[in-house]
């Protein structure tokens, strides 16, 4: 039976070690709040059914800004003075929906690779708890006042990461029984004699703790920026409306095509596949397969968006130009932006929809069809 998996993000801390100002989970990274990156990483994994975020009562406005347009989020709940209290509040809020498994994750770890979630879910088949960790590689020293005192063996020592994954009922019960706060949920579970499996963590899954971590993240975010372009044409045919970027526009003709012939959405989809160098829409959805006949084009776009996330990229911008003499695009451009923003998880200020005629020249000028071109920009953080 498929297990119901919920994620619980603790975001109620104050981030004191990261310096003054906005708490670290709301600070921008590559133009978007840390928390939004974290949520995207979890939402991109097919197994995650929904997400509960635990926030500080002072952080409602930045939370709302950071989560705008994201789906599968449960209403936020408030945390407590310790991380343990924050986790417990989140678990209690989730209890009504009774997931089978909960992934408890730090808001401040935005670079969670999807493979970690895969490993955790596998490990949970044989253990009530599992977490990612990396063996300590540096020599360890006990020291005081800036002076080395005694070496400490590093054998058998691990650096813990999150998500820490548990059978939901087991960890909720462990929290109810706990008498003192613990550093993390593994500590709490182990204190109570539960088995917790270690799976291989990932250096990329580091926690943003100090200003230096933010500097590193910004540096790394500059590393893989890609643009892709797309171009598509559909001929007019008999009909009374065209669909462009998912918006139905009444017109003297329809558009001819195997799917719903949404030439603009196809172009944007191809721009995304192009940026990933993963072929084009025709390779992913062959027109020879009857399955896609008359299909709504958002299926195609959603596939491209899913591939972007699976490859660890974030879409930062989409620009699309529609070329036709008619219908007039201007009155519908805002609705199109909103629809593309919704489907891609972008805010509308990162989606541009423009139109031009071709001065009555060529096939678009002769009103034989509509052409569209698009550019998509992706960033890997
Ligand atoms: N956290 C929480 N509630 C608390 C304390 C921490 O939800 N009372 C969350 C933080 O928001 C963070 C995660 O637990 O996502 C890991 O904690 P940490 O990195 O220590 O974050 P902060 O406590 O915010 O930072 P600092 O310790 O530097 O103040
Ligand atoms: Mg802390």
Explain what you see.
By secondary structure, the protein is α/β, with parallel strands linked by helices. It has 2 domains: 212 residues, Spore Coat Polysaccharide Biosynthesis Protein SpsA, Chain A, CATH 3.90.550.10; 157 residues, 60s Ribosomal Protein L30, Chain: A. Helices cover 30% and strands 29% of the residues. The protein is built from 12 helices and 19 strands. Strands 1, 4, 5, 6, 7, 10, 11 and 12 form an 8-stranded mixed β-sheet that branches. A 5-stranded mixed β-sheet has the order 16-13-19-17-18. It has a two-stranded antiparallel ribbon with strand order 2-3. Helix 3 packs across helix 5 and helix 8 packs parallel to helix 10. The longest helix has 14 residues. The two termini are 35 Å apart. The mean pLDDT is 95. Bound molecules: cytidine-5'-triphosphate (CTP) and magnesium ion (MG). The site of cytidine-5'-triphosphate has 22 residues, from strand 1 and helix 3.
């Amino acid at each position: 039976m498929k297990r119901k998996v919920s994620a619980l993000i603790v975001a109620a801390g104050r981030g004191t070690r990261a310096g003054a100002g906005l708490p670290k989970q709301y600070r921008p990274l590559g133009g978007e709040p840390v928390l939004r990156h974290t949520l995207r990483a979890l939402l991109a994994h097919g197994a995650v059914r929904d997400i509960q975020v635990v926030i500080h009562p002072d952080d409602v406005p930045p939370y709302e800004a950071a989560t705008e347009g994201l789906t599968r989020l449960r209403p936020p709940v408030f945390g407590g003075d310790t991380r343990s209290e924050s986790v417990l509040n989140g678990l209690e809020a989730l209890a009504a929906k009774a997931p089978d498994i909960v992934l408890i994750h730090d808001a401040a770890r935005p670079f969670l690779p999807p493979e970690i979630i895969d490993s955790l879910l596998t490990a949970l088949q044989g253990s009530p708890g599992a977490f990612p960790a990396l063996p300590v590689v540096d020599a360890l020293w006990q020291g005081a006042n800036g002076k080395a005192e005694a070496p400490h063996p590093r054998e058998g020592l691990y650096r813990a990461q999150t998500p820490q994954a548990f059978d939901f009922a087991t960890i909720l019960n462990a929290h109810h029984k706990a008498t003192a706060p613990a550093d993390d949920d593994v500590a709490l579970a182990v204190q109570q004699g539960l088995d917790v499996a270690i799976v291989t963590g990932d250096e990329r899954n580091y926690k943003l703790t100090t200003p230096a971590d933010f500097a590193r993240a910004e540096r790394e975010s500059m590393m893989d920026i890609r643009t892709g372009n797309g171009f598509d044409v559909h001929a007019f045919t008999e009909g009374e409306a065209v669909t462009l970027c998912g918006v139905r526009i009444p017109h003297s003709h329809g558009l001819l095509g195997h799917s719903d012939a949404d030439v603009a959405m196809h172009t944007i989809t191809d721009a995304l596949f192009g940026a990933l160098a993963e072929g084009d829409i025709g390779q992913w959805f062959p027109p020879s397969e009857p399955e896609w006949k008359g299909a709504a084009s958002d299926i195609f776009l959603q596939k491209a968006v899913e591939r972007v996330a699976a490859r660890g990229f974030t879409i930062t911008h989409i620009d699309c130009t529609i070329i036709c003499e008619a219908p007039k695009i201007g009155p519908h451009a805002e609705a199109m932006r909103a629809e593309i923003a919704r489907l891609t998880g972008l805010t509308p200020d990162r989606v541009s929809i423009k139109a031009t005629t071709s001065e009555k020249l060529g096939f678009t000028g002769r009103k034989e069809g509509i052409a569209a071109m698009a550019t998509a920009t992706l960033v890997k953080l």
